[in-house]
Structure formats: structure tokens, C-alpha cells
Amino acid sequence: MGSARPGALRPALTRLFLPCTGGVETLLADEVRRITGTPVEATRGGVWASGDERTAMLLNLESRLATRVLWPLIDGPYRDEQDLYAMARHVPWERWMTPEQTLRVDVAAMRSPLHSLNFAALRVKDAVCDTLREVAGARPSVDTRAPDLPIALFVGPEHATLYADTSGEPLFKRGWREDKGEAPLKETLAAAMLAAAGWQGRAEDGPLLDPCCGAGTIAIEAAQMACGIAPGSMRRFAFERMLPFRPLAAAWRDLQRAAKACVHAPAVPVFASDVSFRMTDFAQRNAARAGVQHAIELKTVDALQRLPPTAQGTLMLNPPYGERIAPKGQGTGGQATAPPRAAGAREGFEGGGGSAEFFGALAGHWKRHYAGWTAWLLSPDAKLPGLMRLKESRRVPLWNGPIECRLLRFEMTAGAGPGGR
Ligand SMILES: C[S@@+](CC[C@H](N)C(=O)[O-])C[C@H]1O[C@@H](n2cnc3c(N)ncnc32)[C@H](O)[C@@H]1O
């Protein structure tokens, strides 16, 4: 069984697992390498990095692409819930929590033979409680909302791994969002779009514009990068309450102080706009909470009338799609809201009323006014280049939750140009 035996739970160095959205693994590997300076290994669904408690704290603070930072406790083969109980009994839980603290067990499964994942979680919880009752004379209780020790159980076809989740709330919750808008991107996905485009907020990356900004996620991520603001600097983490991290409270404060000292004036300008005043108002308030109000120029304007704020730059957007957030404004025949979709139309563009018209008009507008710009669009619709009559110069697969999308790059050249068709 397992990589961790009783008495050998916390070596000076461990392997940390950082899960991420599908398609982001190699980008995350690059990011983790940049943050830690140590070798990492990308695998399906995440990245393995080596490090210690300080590395785990640093990655929670600095990673824009990881969903969590998981600390492996034990792993091994299993067939049923009883095997999971026996495996969990090998972990010296008294080193991770006191009986006065609370826990929660979350289970993720891939091709697992188990009938009930809830029962598997219950058996791991029993193992923690039984161990603490034996060792410390009392058992901890469960808190499903804000546990002191969130435990993650991953069960595959034959192999299981238990992790301490050092993040707690997933890392896309940066701590600044209150106003959501209609279909906000997760912050980690917005960061993945920027990373895939190689845009890091440096002067040489040039200005960035999101002309369909909604609640401002892409622009806020970009502006924080341009200002050197650490993504985790506005939230708390589960490790702050875990026993192994208590002796590191001063080191954690040092990391936070060092991150604050790196904040600077924006290295590049970030622009954002939306046709809806409600959305730009949300974006404005989110930007203020994220500490980047001064670094984003926000406007309420139709993307079809939005003129370029600078001669060259990067357009980065996830444009409206589907019935809830279909395009509004000029290119949709002037309708304030989307017309109803055709009966039987699938989610996407094909029945989406003004969508084809909107994307044709958007491409025309960009060809006329945005020569010299590069546009990156995230879309679930394979027909988008056809609707825009543009040929993409790159296509990066990315998952938006359960929806498979592509991030498409279009080079804007004068007239139809080499990028058009
Ligand atoms: C998919 S949402 C973008 C979500 C955004 N990335 C976020 O994280 O909040 C698409 C946005 O496009 C906006 N929109 C629709 N038609 C538009 C138009 N003609 N010009 C500018 N924005 C438009 C909608 O108001 C909506 O906020």
C-alpha cells in the first residue's frame, strides 16, 4: 500500500498535486515551474510538483491556473469501501487536526467500481474519527461548509489516493467577485486564455481589450497580471488552519508581504467594454474589489461600434452565445434582447437568431478598424470561423466546465488580408 506509512507521513519534501481544467495541463506545468523553479510533471487533469509546506503556500498564493493544491497523504490499491477505511486508518490524522476541529471528505471518481461515493466518503470520515478517538480521546465533527481539514479522496478503477486539500475553497475563487453577471468565466479559465495567448501583462505583450467583458473576469485577471498582483492575495486558505502549517505562520506572512512588495503600476493598459451598462457596472465594482480599478478603462458600448483604443494590441473575449446571453445591439437587427431560438435548435449559434449576423458584422468591423490586432475568441462552436469568414491561425482546446471549447486566434489585417477569406 501507499506512499505514506504511519510515522512517515510528512517527509521534508513531498509531491504536490495541482488539478486544473482539461487542456490547461501544459500551461499549468509552465506556470508551476516558473513559480517554484523545480521540475514538474504534467499529467491528465493536473500537474505533479515537488516541494514542502512553503511550496504549497506559495502555489496557493501565486497560481492562476490550478484549481487546488493537494497534499497526498496515502495511496494504494482498493476494491471496496472497507479497503478505503483500512487505508485511511494508516494516516496519523492527529498530526493534521485536533478533535475540536472539523473535517469534510470530497470524493472524485474515474471508472471506479464503487456503488456509492457517499459511502466511501463516510468510511474515510469514520477512519479519521476512529483514529482521533483512539489517539486523542475524542472525535472531530463534520462541517460541510467551512471545514478545518478538507480531505479529497480520488478513486480510480483499482487505485485510490487521499489528499489534504490545502486550498479549501477552489482557487478560482480569488476573493474579489461579488457581482457575477450572466455567464461569468471562471477566473482560472480566463487566466488560461491569457496564458495560451502568451500574454503575461508585460510591456512587450501590448494592450489588451475585451469588448464583451460581462462582469470583467478576463480584464481583471489581465490587469492583476499587469500590476503584479498575486491571485491569492485577497483570500484565505485551508492550510492556515491545518496543524502541519501552524509552525509556518511567520513564513506565510513573509510570503504575503513579499507578494505585496511586487505590486506595481500597470505595465500595459487594459481596456474592457460591454453593450450592457449593468455588466460594466458589475465589472467596475469587481475591478475595485480586485485592486485594479485604476488599471482598466471601462466603457459601455456595442462591440460593433467599439473603436480600437490603441494602434495595436490583443483582443481577448468569450463572446455571447446560447439563448441566455445571445448578442445584443446593432448587428442583431437592433434588438435589445435575443429573439427566441428556432424550435429544435441546439445550444450554440445555429438557431441563435442574430448570432450569425452579429459575428459577420463583428469580423467586418475588426477588418475595417483593427488591422494590426490579434483576436482570441473562446467558443464552443466549431462553425465560428465560418460565421466570421475568417481563418483561425491557432486553435487551442479548452474546457469551460463540461463544455468543450476552442480558443481561436485570428490575425487582423487590413481589408480581408491574409487572415480573411
Ligand atoms: C459570455 S458573456 C462574457 C462573460 C465575461 N467573460 C465574464 O466573465 O463575465 C458575453 C457578454 O457579451 C455581452 N454582449 C452581447 N452583445 C454585445 C455587443 N453587441 N457588444 C458588446 N457586448 C455584448 C453580453 O452583455 C455579455 O456580458
Sum up the structure in keywords.
five-stranded mixed β-sheet, disordered C terminus, 21% strand, seven-stranded mixed β-sheet, 28% helix, alpha/beta, elongated, binds S-adenosylmethionine, 421 residues
What does the model show?
- This protein has 421 residues and is α/β, with parallel strands linked by helices.
- The protein is built from 10 helices and 15 strands.
- The strands form 3 sheets. The chain has a 7-stranded mixed β-sheet, covered by helices on one side. A 5-stranded mixed β-sheet has the order 4-8-7-5-6.
- Strand 5, helix 4 (117-136) and strand 6 (141-142) form a beta-alpha-beta unit.
- Helix 3 (81-88) runs parallel beside helix 4.
- The longest helix is centred in the N-terminal third of the chain and has 20 residues, at 117-136.
- The radius of gyration is 24 Å and the shape is elongated.
- 48% of the residues are buried.
- S-adenosylmethionine (SAM) binds next to helix 6.
Shape: elongated
Cα(first) to Cα(last) distance is 59 Å
Radius of gyration: 24 Å
Q: How do the helices and strands follow one another from N- to C-terminus?
A: EHEEHEHEHEEEHEHHEHEEHEHEE
How would you classify the helix and strand content by structural class? alpha/beta
Strand order of the largest sheet: 11-10-9-12-13-15-14
Mean pLDDT: 90
Pick out the low-confidence regions: 1-11, 334-353, 416-421
